[in-house]
Design brief:
By secondary structure, the chain is an alpha+beta fold. It is built from 3 helices and 3 strands; from the N terminus they run ααβββα.
Length: 90
């Protein structure tokens, strides 16, 4: 994996991101693994689904390797106005 679960948990902690239904304020490594497992299981159980998402994570079936699932982290949304404004001083 490009990020370990420790690094991923660190991102959630530093950003203050929560996962609904977890016990602590910040998700633990085991809670993130549980969420990732549920996302992957959803794809397996629903053969017609190409992706599944929750808690800023999205699981996508890998077209080249059918047994693999790719995970993506949603970090935010950008609009052309925001990007143009932030890059003017660069």
């Amino acid at each position: 994996m490009a990020l370990t679960t420790r690094e991923l948990a660190g991102i959630y902690t530093s950003k203050g991101w929560r996962i609904a239904g977890t016990h602590g304020e910040n998700p633990s490594r085991s809670e993130l693994l549980m969420v990732m497992g549920r996302l992957a299981a959803h794809l397996t159980e629903h053969g017609d689904a190409s992706y599944s998402n929750t808690a800023r994570l999205m699981a996508v079936k890998d077209e080249d390797f059918p047994d693999n699932v790719d995970f993506y982290l949603f970090i935010g949304t950008a609009s052309p106005k925001i990007v143009d404004h932030e890059t003017q001083g660069v």
